[in-house]
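The protein record passed on below.

***
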Amino acid sequence: MARLLRSVLGAAILLWLSVFAQAQTQIPSLSLAMGTQIQIVLPDLVSIVGTATVQNGQLSLQNPLPPGREVRLLITHTGTGELAMPTAYVSPDGRDLLVNIPNSGLVSFSQWLAQERGLRFIVPLPAASNGP
């Protein structure tokens, strides 16, 4: 019984890793139509940093991004079920993401959205820190 459970669990993990690997490379062809949802999560895939939905020609985040952090973009198109999960890095000022696009390297997400999809990327300003 335990051997069967390990075998089934192993197969499930391999399937998940296969889907994860495919999702890593799909952003260039992904449709970002109205209603597409994006969650920005930390690499642990549990901690959500921000969420946004494509509406009226823009992708607007509700919360500022943590400057300099590595993140994953969980992009889900609600109509087609398309999925992408590229690695990204929050810019030092927290105003943009640098997305790893296959065959292109790190690319500004806001520039990519504008040029490739005609969308504006709106990110709230990080809170000013009160230094000594």
